[in-house]
UniProtKB/TrEMBL annotation:
Annotated compartments: Membrane
Topological relation to the membrane, as annotated: Multi-pass membrane protein
UniProt key word Transmembrane: yes
Region spans: Disordered: 1-21
Superkingdom to which the source organism belongs: Eukaryota
Pfam short name (any one): Aa_trans
Protein name listed in UniProt: Amino acid transporter
Domain annotation Amino acid transporter transmembrane: ranges: 52-445
A GO cellular component annotation in the UniProt record: membrane
One Gene Ontology molecular-function label: L-amino acid transmembrane transporter activity
Assigned protein family: Belongs to the amino acid/polyamine transporter 2 family.
Natural source organism: Cucurbitaria berberidis CBS 394.84
Keyword list, A-Z: Membrane, Transmembrane, Transmembrane helix
Length: 470
C-alpha cells in the first residue's frame, strides 16, 4: 500500500510539472529540467524558474507601486475627489481581470513567455511583431520615467546640486547595472526593499501633509490655510483623458506579468499572488490619493513627494529613492529580456553562461538603458510622460489583448448565458481600451505641449531643477 501511495504521489507531481510546461530530466530536479519556454535548464546557467508565490507578489507590487502612485493625487485634483476614486476603482477592476487572464492563458499555453507570443497565437506573425515591439517600447518609456523619477529625487536630496541632465545620466547607469541581473528570482529580493521603501515614503508623506500648516506650493497668506480640494471638478476633455491615462499607468504592470508567471516555480499559484497584490495596491492608492489631495488641494505636487515642504521633501525622496531605483531596474530588465529571449530563444546559449550569452544580455540591457535615457532627457515632464506612456502604450498592453485572449480560448464553447456575458465583457474591454488609447494619447500630448509653452516649462536635456514641479 505504501508503494502504491508513493507511486501515486509521483504521478501527481509529474502531472503538475506537465501542466506548468516543466518536465524533469533526472531525479535531481533542480540540477537539470526542461521548460517549454527556456528549454533545458541546468546548473551551468541561470535558473529562470526560481520565483515563489511570495516573490511573485512583491515583483507584481514593485512593478506597479512606484511611479504611478506619485501621480494619483494630481489625478484626483483633475477629476475631483469622488469621480477620481470611482475611476480608479473601475480601472482597478478592468486591469485585475486582465491580470487574471494572463495567468489562465499561461496555464493553457505553457509555451507562452511574453505578450509577443500571445500576439503570434492570436494574429500570426503580424501580431507577434506588433505586440513585441509595443511591449519593448512600453518598458523602455517606463524606464525613462523611472530615470526621471530618480533624477527628481537626487535634485531634491542635493538641493539641485548638479544639472538635472547629469542626474538622469546617473540614473541610467544605476538602472543598467542592476537591470543586468539575469533572472527575476535574483531580483525579487531587491523588490522587497523597493516595496518597503516606496510605501514608507508615501506613508510619511501622508502623515506630513496632515500635520503641516500649508502645502509647500501654497502662497503665504495671513491666518490659517484652508485646502481648496474639490469633491467634483469640470476638467477639460484633454485634461480628463490625461488623468485617466495616469490611472491606467498606475495599474499597467500587466504586460510584465507574462514574464513573471513564466519564471515562477509553480505558475498555478499565480492567482493567489495576484489577489494579494491588487488588494494591497488599490487600498494604498485610494488612501494616499485621498489624504494627500484632501490636505493639499490644487497645490499638490507631481510627483506627490514634493508636497510636504522642503525638509519633508528631502526625507520623502530619501526614503523613496531605493524604491525608484528598483522600479527602474525592473523596467530595464523587462525590456532587455524581450530582446534577449528573441535573439537566443531555442539556442543553447539561452541557459548557459557562455560568451555569446553574456555579450547578448549586456548588449540588450545597455541598449535599452541608452534609449530610455534619451526618452527621459527629451521629455523631462514627469506627469506628462507618465500619462503619455499610460495612454499610448500601457492601455494597449493591459486591456485589448486580454479580451482577445479570452475569445481565442473560448469562442467555440457552448453559447450559455455566462458565455454571452463574457463575450460582451471582452467586447467592452477591447472598445474601452481603444477609446482610452486614442483619447488619452491626445490629452497627454496636449498636456506636454502646454507644459512647454508655460513659463518655466522644462526643456529637453534641461539643467533646471525638476523637483519643484507641481
Amino acid at each position: 500500500m505504501t508503494g502504491f501511495n508513493n507511486d501515486h504521489e509521483k504521478m501527481d507531481e509529474k502531472k503538475v510539472d506537465e501542466e506548468n510546461g516543466l518536465h524533469a530530466v533526472n531525479s535531481q530536479r533542480r540540477a537539470s529540467f526542461s521548460d517549454a519556454v527556456f528549454g533545458e535548464i541546468t546548473e551551468e546557467g541561470p535558473n529562470y524558474r526560481a520565483v515563489g508565490w511570495k516573490g511573485t507578489t512583491v515583483l507584481m507590487l514593485k512593478t506597479q507601486i512606484g511611479l504611478g502612485v506619485l501621480s494619483i493625487p494630481q489625478v484626483f485634483h483633475s477629476l475631483g475627489l469622488v469621480p477620481g476614486v470611482i475611476c480608479l476603482l473601475i480601472i482597478a477592476v478592468m486591469t485585475s481581470w486582465s491580470n487574471y487572464i494572463v495567468g489562465v492563458f499561461k496555464i493553457r499555453h505553457p509555451d507562452v513567455y511574453g505578450i509577443d507570443d500571445v500576439g503570434r497565437k492570436l494574429f500570426g506573425r503580424i501580431g507577434y511583431e506588433f505586440f513585441g515591439i509595443t511591449f519593448a517600447l512600453y518598458w523602455i518609456f517606463v524606464a525613462g520615467s523611472g530615470m526621471l523619477g530618480i533624477a527628481t529625487a537626487l535634485n531634491a536630496l542635493s538641493s539641485h546640486g548638479a544639472c538635472t541632465a547629469v542626474f538622469v545620466a546617473v540614473a541610467t547607469i544605476v538602472g543598467f547595472s542592476l537591470g543586468s541581473i539575469q533572472t527575476l528570482g535574483r531580483i525579487s529580493w531587491l523588490a522587497w526593499i523597493g516595496v518597503v521603501s516606496i510605501l514608507v515614503a508615501i506613508l510619511t508623506l501622508t502623515v506630513s501633509v496632515g500635520v503641516q500648516e500649508r502645502p509647500a506650493a501654497a502662497p503665504i497668506t495671513p491666518g490659517p490655510w484652508k485646502s481648496d480640494y474639490a469633491i467634483t471638478q469640470k476638467p477639460k476633455p484633454a485634461e480628463a483623458f490625461a488623468a485617466l491615462s495616469s490611472l491606467v499607468f498606475a495599474y499597467a504592470g500587466t504586460p510584465a506579468f507574462f514574464n513573471i508567471v513564466s519564471e515562477m516555480r509553480e505558475p498555478r499559484h499565480y492567482t493567489r499572488a495576484l489577489i494579494l497584490c491588487q488588494s494591497i495596491m488599490t487600498a494604498v492608492y485610494i488612501a494616499i490619493g485621498v489624504v494627500v489631495y484632501y490636505f493639499c488641494g490644487s497645490y499638490v505636487a507631481s510627483p506627490a513627494l514634493g508636497s510636504a515642504g522642503k525638509m519633508m521633501k528631502k526625507v520623502c525622496y530619501g526614503l523613496a529613492l531605493p524604491g525608484l531605483i528598483v522600479s527602474t531596474t525592473l523596467f530595464v530588465h523587462f525590456a532587455a529580456k524581450y530582446f534577449f529571449m528573441r535573439i537566443l530563444r531555442g539556442s543553447q546559449h539561452l541557459t548557459r553562461n557562455t560568451k555569446t550569452h553574456w555579450i547578448t544580455w549586456i548588449g540588450c540591457t545597455a541598449g535599452n538603458s541608452l534609449v530610455a535615457y534619451i526618452v527621459a532627457s527629451a521629455i523631462p515632464v514627469f506627469g506628462g510622460l507618465v500619462s503619455l506612456v499610460g495612454a499610448l502604450l500601457g492601455t494597449l498592453m493591459c486591456m485589448q489583448p486580454m479580451g482577445c485572449m479570452w475569445l481565442y480560448d473560448h469562442w467555440r464553447e457552448a453559447r450559455t448565458p455566462k458565455w454571452m456575458f463574457m463575450v460582451g465583457w471582452c467586447a467592452f474591454m477591447i472598445t474601452a481600451g481603444w477609446f482610452l488609447t486614442i483619447a488619452g494619447t491626445y490629452g497627454s500630448i496636449v498636456g506636454i505641449m502646454d507644459s512647454y509653452k508655460a513659463s518655466g516649462g522644462s526643456a529637453a536635456w534641461t539643467c533646471a531643477d525638476n523637483s519643484n514641479s507641481s
